[in-house]
Amino acid sequence: MDFYNRLMNLDRRWVYLVVGIAVIIPVLNPFRVPVFVTQEVRSIYDFVESLEPGDIMFLAIDYDPQAMAEVHPMARAIMRQCFAKDVKLIISALSQNGPGMAEQLISEVAREFGKKSGIDYCYLGYKPYFGLVILAMGQNFRIPFPEDYYGVPLDSLPMMRDVRNYDDVKGVVDISSGNITDAWIIYGNGRYDVKLAIGVTGVMTANYYPYLASGQIFGLMGGLKGASEYEALSKQGDRAIKMMSIQTTAHIVIVLFIVAGNIGYFMSRKKNKK
Amino acid sequence: MRREIPIAICFLAGIFYTLELFIPHRQVLSIFETVRQWAQILIAFAYVLAIANILRVNFHAIQKNQRDWPYKVVLIVSLFFMITLGIFFGGIGEGTIFDWVYYHAQYPLQSTMFALLAFFIASAAFRAFRIRTLEAALLAVTAVLVMIGRVPVGEELWNNFPDFTEWIMNVPQLAGKRAIMIGAALGAISTALKVLTGLERTYLGGE
Amino acid sequence: MKVISFIRVLFFFLYFLLIASPLSFAQEDLSQSWFNPHRVNMLIFLIFFFAIIIYFIDRAKKGKSLFIRRIAGLDAIEEAVGRATEMGKPVLFIPGIEDIDQIQTVAAMIILGNVAKMVAAYDTPLFVPICRPMVVPVAEERVKEGYASAGRPDAYNRDNVRYISDEQFAYAAGVQGIMLRDRPAANLMFGSFFAESLMLAETGFLTGAIQVAGTANIHQLPFFVVACDYTIIGEELFASSAYLSKEPKLLGSLKGSDLTKAIIIGILALGAILETLGITQFTRWFFIE
Amino acid sequence: MDLGTIIWNTIALFLTVCIFSFLYKDNPFYKFAEHLVVGVSAGYFAIILFYNGFVPKVWIPVTTRGEWWYLLPAILGVMTWTRFSKKWAWISRFSIAFYMGIAVGVALPLEMQQRVVKQLHATMLPVHFMDIQGFWNLLIILGVLCGLVYFFFSVEHKGAVGGAARLGIWILMIGFGAGFGLTVMGRISLLADRIQFMREWYLMVTQALWGA
């Protein structure tokens, strides 16, 4: 068998081996791939940067644990950036399986920055029917959430004393893996004019560009790539960036295999014709 | 009798639940919900059939000394091992042995099976993405473009690469997906309708 | 007379278009009422579609012959089974990983019956690994019936319909085991598949089997298209029961579904034209909360 | 690091390697792991259904609250067991029919709503040439139309219908290619996750044996 034929009929185990190596190397020796920051991610970063210490921002953690790999780094980076700047956070978790995961993240980051519940942040937790919850919070956070996640009445939390509704927060960043994003756009922004930015999974990203163009959202982070951009900008964490390097090598290797297979196919066909 | 009654049951239950979408009455909805719970209970009981099937098939294999029969012993022992742990060793809560076995045996096994897909997806791409016909070309070229567009290499090559992949997702991909979805839904609905009216009674089996 | 009834239909149409169109986002409390007025459009669509299907089934029963185009993937089933029997190797039928409540699984069971009939004539084993308990009895019955109708009830082996596991990847592992060790020469995969699709199709390719797959799960179709010899796409799966059995009542429903598609194409074109002209009433009528 | 954790994690590592060994070829270790995962998961589901299906939904309501009507589904469930007898097997059809009826009834309107009417609504887009989106809208509409034509079964794919169907299949192919390319990322993440686990095991064991 000549070279091209052999290339075309390469044993699958060589493919496995090369793909394995392409993933193992960046896991063991993480390197940085260039991160191109897009405007839609930068505007979220700029917004958070523009906040003063003591300002309040609303962070909506609206995804299930299955989507963690892609969007968790976004939530983490934004939370860390806020706490580093002493910006206060109100956090909700409107996805059914999300509250426990959100709580873990919050307590982990809060411990790192020495932040206290009720003083530096307020975790509202979960209530069903996200559309209605988002609408009700436009009246007063206390309607859907008389108490926070830990069962403490909002009225007794120092940071919530003068906070009633969206008018008292500087903006909302919604990180989501499902249609809760739509509710935030339709009800949050549409009804109450909330200044809104979103972070979504890779598959969802394309659907939300129209809202960016129309100004209904001011920023958009899409999937692992958006997360890595935000990490690079804010310099808070590098999980998504690391993952990006693994993805890059693996994708390149697979594409090269496809190209090699086609070269083998065309060259051997050419020879057969002769 | 043996056929007509089941068909009647299926028809009534089907019509009842088709109407659910149109009746917002609270009490009625709670009845719907209760009866739906019944279906879940039914499955819990039907699982006995599944276990019986596993035991029968594997016992026969062991009895006949079929090739690989020692592994069937592993299968049956591990099945009973899990059931024993769940019932006699503290239930299924966090920190029980059942939980530990789940996290350190079942979970790694399953997630490694899942991870094998990374290799399979590569070998399938290598083998099948040969540009033999126009259809194959469209398939292969789109896949390669989307793969490149998802990682920073794309931007390195061409500034608008990510926008281009998004266009692929947003226009041709979306159109194809919708066409399949609408067609498949119509097919599913007409099959469902035939089941409901008893025209299609395969699920009941033969006489 | 015709004119009058036409006007009546038109009036009816306009009434729904302009007055009853369910477009309000009203938050009124419906928890005590017996009908949700916002879903009146859905009800009409459903009744309309049912009527078309029933009409065509009825017509087909009266003996009007119906044309149906060739579906390569379904012809390939026969070819694959034929090759397996020639080689004296088993046939593997995988009915997806969802329960019998999923319509795709029902469609798979219909195909299974036909495959059993094909296989029964020869002494070729037919393996059916199963992922959900409720599918077990149905599949057993289907295979038994298939063998019986081919005149070989004695050839039916109950142990070949095997429950494997409810867990997706445990199921995939079990099926891979059958592929590797029993070496079926034909793998038929029909039903609702998820991530395990590529696992099964790649392992099947390794063993050199002819593979025919069909699913309506859009996200898994790419993998079947890439790794199998023939792929049945979306609605073709549901059409298969009519295609394989050639029963007039089933062919009739296919015709009805085709007409519905033609109507949908018309509605779509009309909607786009009206939307382009800035008339949004029509589109809104297809809005569902 | 206590010994228990190390032992459990070593078991997990061993099983992980067993499964990966399949990539080279089928072997006794993989066979062992394969049968183990099938057995363990079948047992796991039996227990989960027992504690989540039977205990809270039948046992507790009937024995502690006296809500006897929860026995009805239990009877339906027991009826499936008649399949063990040749003579009475037909009784199991009642349960299957009940289950099918509910499933089909729930699915019917939802399929219509989610996959037909909502998709239709989303596809009725304005076509214009003011910006590029207006033109893309035209492509989307044409794509959906041609895709639908491909699914016509009762007309021969010749002439105009054949042309549209062919265009339809091209669109589907582009969609499949995109779907394939998009999935690669997720699958690679899963592999990275397993490799990360193996690395952590290595670090844990070396630390336990030789200290930090």
What features would you describe in this structure?
- With 274 residues, chain A is α/β, with parallel strands linked by helices.
- A six-stranded parallel sheet of chain A has the order 3-2-1-4-5-6, with helices on both faces.
- The longest helix of chain A is centred in the C-terminal third of the chain and has 35 residues, at 239-273.
- Chain A has helices at 3-8, 12-28, 39-50, 68-84, 99-113, 130-139, 180-192, 202-205, 209-213, 223-234, 239-273; strands at residues 56-62, 88-92, 121-125, 172-176, 196-200, 219-222.
- In chain A, helix 4 (68-84) links the parallel strand 1 and strand 2 (88-92).
- Among the domains of chain B are: 1-64; 129-207, no CATH class.
- Chain B contains seven helices and no strands.
- Chain B has helices at residues 4-19, 26-63, 69-88, 97-128, 134-149, 152-157, 161-196.
- Chain B is extended, with a radius of gyration of 26 Å.
- Chain C has 289 residues and is an alpha/beta fold.
- In chain C, 57% of the residues lie in helices and 9% in strands.
- Chain C has eleven helices and six strands.
- In chain C, helix 8 (221-227) links the parallel strand 5 and strand 6 (230-233).
- In chain C, helix 4 runs parallel beside helix 9 and helix 6 packs parallel to helix 7 (196-206).
- The longest helix of chain C is centred in the last third of the chain and has 29 residues, at 248-276.
- With 212 residues, chain D is mainly α.
- Chain D has a domain at 123-212.
- Chain D contains six helices and no strands.
- Chain D is extended and about 70 Å long.
- The chains are: A alpha/beta (274), B mainly alpha (207), C alpha/beta (289), D mainly alpha (212).
- Chains C and D meet through helix 2, helix 6, helix 8, helix 9 and helix 10 of C and helix 2, helix 4, helix 5 and helix 6 of D.
